[in-house]
Amino acid sequence: MSAAMDTESTYSGYSHYSGHSKKAHRQGRDRHKSPRSKDGSRSEKSVTIQTPPAEPLLGNDASRAEEGQDDNWGETTTAITGTSEHSISQEDIARISKDLEDSVGLDCKRYLGLTVAAVLGLLVFLTPIAFILLPQILWRDHLEPCGTVCEGLFISVAFKLLILLIGTWALFFRQPKADIPRVFVFRALLLVLIFLFVFSYWLFYGVRILDSKDTNYQGIVQYAVSLVDALLFIHYLAIVLLELRQLQPMFTVKVVRSTDGESRYYSLGHLSIQRAALVVLENYYKDFTVYNPALLTASKSRAAKHMAGLKVYNVDGPGNNASGQSRAMIAAAARRRDSSHNELYYEEADHERRVKKRRARLVVAVEEAFTHIKRLQAEEQQKAPGEMMDPREAAQAIFPSMARALQKYLRTTRQQQYHSMESILQHLSFCITNNMTPKAFLERYLNPGPTLQYDRNRWFSKQWTLVSEEAVTSGLQDGIVFVLKCLDFSLVVNVKKIPFIKLSEEFIDPKSHKFVLRLQSETSV
């Protein structure tokens, strides 16, 4: 707006030089607006926090757009069209294209594995029933009568199949949490074992019972019962291999984020590298603070500002080599290195001062807004039940009073891209519904939370790539290092084995603590 006022004053000051001052003034304003329309990134950068349309907070649209822009908008955004109100970065375009390429192959692999497991599971449960029913269908007249023991075996088979069905549902039929690059070795071995086991039973059944048409029906039923018992033991083996084996901690992994160096430690059991990567990612989303690339641009802008302050003049003419200029700039930057730490100190001190100042304003504004809510609730209790205000309406009523302070604080702490106006209103209505304090409302904005706290559309890490020198299906070993890469950063995982601890015991004789105190009978007076 200051630029617009300067332009208008310039044209008004020179109006006496031409008889068409109004026309020149109008053309000057058009020329002032045209660069903003051409520069799509500045004009299309929307404000992260917006007030409701019925109650505008800021004075006009120009100041609102100016406050919604960050410091490096020209380097991080790319306009799609000249008339669009949204912008998208090159990183988003690359992420979308990569997701589209990988989605088809991953879906096919996932559904193929589920189909094979479902067909094999159906074959396992139908096999004992088929063993019992086929003799009744094919040579029923030649079968020996089924006695009491045989009929009791029917009940045993029914309950054992029910237990096996429930156990299989609890162990295998789960919602998949992730797509791993390679097959799970133990699960594949179990499927192969079950297939060979059922195939061998069918082979024996076809040769010894179907071909000879065995008339001993009780023996056939006992054969089916033995199959169900063996399947129950295989299910127990699956529990040991898939669930119990990995419970005992054997390794300690250190996870470091490559951009800002934030690290965490986790204890893992006997797992393959790909399954250990899944555990690391599950803990990453809940333990690591959300990745904010805006906080990493401070050092880059500071270095660019130092280099921009250096000017090199070519006194030898245009034919001089450019390498001399680069060496001169490096030498000048080295001479200024001694004073750079002072600039860094004062920049950080000024940033902390501005953050504390805007945080204090935000706390006061939120406390006043919640005080207003308490007053409205006291007034609403005196009204009829049909006139009570909805929590959403109450949130929209008090939001404009705190929106400006919240917007400035989020812009100062570089968190504006993670909080939209709709998410703030939902959180505010949630706090009002559950009668929370202002401090509980501000907890989400004063301290950056984990990635799971924010909307999935604002995550910077969705598609991961596992990079390892060892095979991803091999188990964890001491000294293994693997990397989990996404589009913006990577997680470096270093595996260390928990050392063997030798604990000894030292026996202390209880009598060694006893002593005798002897007092003299005669004392001095």
From TrEMBL:
Gene name in the database record: Vangl1
Family: Belongs to the Vang family.
Membrane topology: Multi-pass membrane protein
Alphabetized InterPro entries for the sequence: VANGL
Name by which UniProt lists this protein: VANG1 protein
Sequence ranges of Basic residues compositional bias: 19-35
Region annotation Disordered: where it falls in the sequence: 1-86
Biased composition (Basic and acidic residues): 36-45
Keywords annotated in UniProt: Cell membrane, Membrane, Transmembrane, Transmembrane helix
